[in-house]
Amino acid sequence: MPTPRTSAPSTTDGTDALLCLLFGAVGAAVGYGSLAWLSGSLTNYLLASGTWVRYQPAEAVLHPAELWPDLSPTALLIGARVLPAVLLSALLTAIAIFWLSRRSGVTTGLARKADLAPLLGKQITAKAKSLRPSLSGLKPKEIPPADRGILLGTLDPGQAEVRASWEDVLVAIMAPRSGKTSGLAIPAILSAPGPVLLTSNKAANDAFTATVDARSKVGNIWTLDPQQIAHHPRRMWWDILADARDLAGAKRLAGHFVAASVDDSNGGDFWSTAASNTLAALFLAASSSGRPITDVLAWLASPADRTPVDLLTDAGHLAVAAQLQGTVSGATETRDGIYETARQYASCLLDPEIAAWVTPTEEVPEFKPSDFATSKDTLYLLSKDGGGSASAIIAAAADAVMRAAVIVAERSGGRLDPPLLAILDEAANVCRISDLPDLYSHLGSRGVIPLTILQSYRQGQKVWGETGMDALWSAATIKIIGSGMDDADFADRVSRLVGDHDVQTSSISTSDGGKSTSISMRTERILPPDAIRALPKGKALLLATGIRVAMLSLKPWYKERSAKQIGPASAAATKAITERAIAKTLRSDDFGTAA
């Protein structure tokens, strides 16, 4: 008996492809002939003899002049040649678009338009009306797109705009220069209907310069720039001790200074905990007595000073006073170690230029988070990266704004309208809010919409720990993953979340009796880890609660019509930053002395 010879399995079959091509060509020819007969007969009926010839598609293509002898050459050319070609092209295009729109989600395994209906025009508009009483009296067509939700991107094909609702909380993990600012942060800021908060470690050619002019036309601009990222003159001050009038608020403020200097891995050791408790006690003493935060620096420099203990006692914080007294009167080596650690955490306040932004002054207006929550103002929080930076002040300000907004929402029906948008760009570098994962569980329900932007999943783990980052990731109802994902473990995790799909394969067996083709199904990842790593710039994966994973195209601001106005305004703002920097350089020499 002859032994069959089986070829290697192949995912494509050339013979099948050729047959499909042949059938397609025959179908197109028949369709063209039918259209030529139909349009030619109609032309003859309207312009010539008025007779209607019997169905002859071949004659209509090959010998149209014999079929309709009464038609002029021009009428024959248009009616029997041009018109059927145009109709066939339009028909084939419509079929292709319909097939792609219906089958793209099936063939790729990713979400199609029907799957994303809760985030598209009709349903997202209805949800905006239900969440925002100010829109309830408007018809759906009367609600501007910016009021419907935060634009995330478009779904190809069809260019359907996908938006997050006004109760979603978002996390974006995107590598540098992957479009996170131009395609996500800036469009969200420009279209925000209410107050906006932005944290950043850059100013020139970034979200600050691209949005400051447009947002100044909506409301007031507040810029907290203690380290002169934008070389912005001090035109505001913020009472950093305003929320430290009780022990819980003082502990939160101290926690921001600790988190800005240490990571989650070493933030719970003895020295960090003791220094945090000491800072909290000193903040509470200063706030309770109406002292500025600069007095805390003086107390840290002199551990034996009993002033904070007396102030705490006078304010009725007896337990905190006793604890602080115990630290001060303890072993000298231990006390000095605790105070030195606390001094390191608060070291940014040693710079008088930084401390001035959070110290009461009558020269400039005070920024009040509760008033900001009900405005359409914009707050830019700028700081450099690294230890010793003013990032603790930035995190404290962002935290104060979001908490004040929650309180205002609870007092005004439960939800802010319009909502507050908090863009926490470079959150792991300049806005380390320790309990941000916990805040995510209820911010959205109060109309406070955070968008935390990270460069990688591991960056978040470094700040909040593995458990904290997992909690933040799980609490986010909208997750955006952009290009440049080099973390193999995270890429594999996302790949598993995207899921598997069945792929049809065919194999050809050859024997003396001829060839036979068998078709089988196998399961493979919809997006393997290497495909996630290789996402092109401008593309992003959308993981929304209860919806199949989708591939989106970002809509960067510079590709929109408004770029004609935003581009020059951004360039002007960048130029102004450069001019302010040069002016400062001219006022001092390389040693910082007057020129």
UniProtKB/TrEMBL annotation:
* SUPFAM superfamilies per UniProt: P-loop containing nucleoside triphosphate hydrolases
Q: Which UniProt keywords apply?
A: Cell membrane, Membrane, Transmembrane, Transmembrane helix
User: Which InterPro entries does the UniProt entry name for this protein?
Assistant: P-loop_NTPase, T4SS-coupling_protein, TraG-D_C
Is the keyword Transmembrane helix in the record? yes
- Membrane-crossing ranges are 17-38, 78-100
Membrane-protein topology: Multi-pass membrane protein
Query: Which CDD domains does this UniProt record tie to the protein?
Result: TrwB_TraG_TraD_VirD4
Q: Boundaries of each TraD/TraG TraM recognition site domain copy?
A: 419-537
What is the name of this protein?
A: TraM recognition domain-containing protein
Record localization: Cell membrane
